[in-house]
Amino acid sequence: MEYLNKNIFSRFLGAFLLIVLLSSCKSDDDKPETTNFTQYFDCKINNEVFESTGIPFSCSPLAWDYYPEQYLSTPAGYAVLWGQKCESFEMTGIRIWGLQHQTGTLNFLEPQFADSVSPYFSYIDTTQGNFVVIENLIAGQMTIEKFTPRESGSSPLGEIQGTFEFTITDSLGMDTLRITDGRFLSTVSIAQPPPNLSMSEHTSAPLSTGMDYLMAPLDFTEVTSGILLDKGFPMMEIAAFDGTANGDTLKEYGDWFRQFGTMVTSKTTVASPVGITDDYKPAADTMLKTGVIPIMVLHAAYHKFISDSTALSSLITFQNNQLNDVARRTSSPEETLNFFSTAN
């Protein structure tokens, strides 16, 4: 990847995982929903062209997901626009909280019709196999020229079109990405929600930095899995994938990788077992290039904060903008769950 300084600090987190690479074929029933316009997501990153590219039936090149009403743990008004190069898993996107349905120019630092905006760029450091997220916002804006939302999950897809630009840095401020000449045209869907973010404030600061600071006082001794979902970088739904329903099977390799990224960024300690993308990505890429669809399996034990907010507030308090364990608490604020997901 040519956008960044070779000495960039690579942040990565680990997870329990089981990955099985098998070959399979896709049926005609797996074809994506068609539209009457050509979708696109492209920009320049430090003057180098970034154009989203997909892999038929296995990896979507772009998407705009918008939730006009609250859906499960996803707050009303949450939206995310992203484009990716599926073969290299380079992705750039814009997350928006509290988005109002309207057109116009949205300043990322002082959003006029949204609560907050957080753009990002993620990639795989192939020298070490680490997953890296760049998300420290310096400045940015997007202009929404057309915005027709989708009414419900069974309604026809909506449409959104516009332009964007933003500047972000890594956590140390050593490398800066200037995203310019961005433009997008995408369907508007209602997709799987990201993990619950109700414990954090949404600001322009990097999510990983904010979550590390927010949870620094907590004792993670009882998080024996080494993974606390509430701490991770939300890219794909995790909680609903427990191995008990047909919905645990994804149709796209890219969606599976976003679940992997969500899990590996949820690590609580350096001692947690880690898996790196080099464990599976080279073999999977080779299979995809030869027309063979890999079957990806991810199985992990993880923890998350208990869903009973009343009980949780008796175990954890919020003081000085940080979460703190209640002294001499008699039970754990986290619960243990299992994650199981396949992509074929």
What does this structure look like?
It is a single chain. With 344 residues, this protein is mainly beta. It is built from 4 helices and 18 strands. Residues 5-34 and 191-205 have low confidence and may be disordered. It has helices spanning 207-215, 253-264, 281-289, 309-313, and strands at residues 23-24, 40-45, 48-51, 62-67, 78-85, 90-97, 104-107, 116-125, 130-134, 136-148, 158-169, 176-189, 249-250, 293-294, 296-305, 316-319, 322-325, 334-343. Strands 2, 3, 4, 5, 6, 7, 8, 9, 10, 11 and 12 form an 11-stranded mixed sheet that branches. A 3-stranded mixed sheet has the order 13-18-15, with helices on one face.
**Poorly predicted segments:** 5-34, 191-205
What fraction, in percent, of the residue positions are helical?
A: 10-25%
How many H/I helices? 4
Rg from Cα: 20 Å
Task: Spell the H/E element sequence.
Answer: EEEEEEEEEEEEHEHHEEHEEE
Between the first and last Cα atoms, what is the distance in angstroms? 27 Å
Tally of discrete structural domains:
1
The number of strands is 18
Name the shape in a single word. globular
What proportion strand? 35-45%
For the residues shown, what is the average pLDDT?
75
Structural class: mainly beta
Biggest sheet statistics = 11 strands, mixed
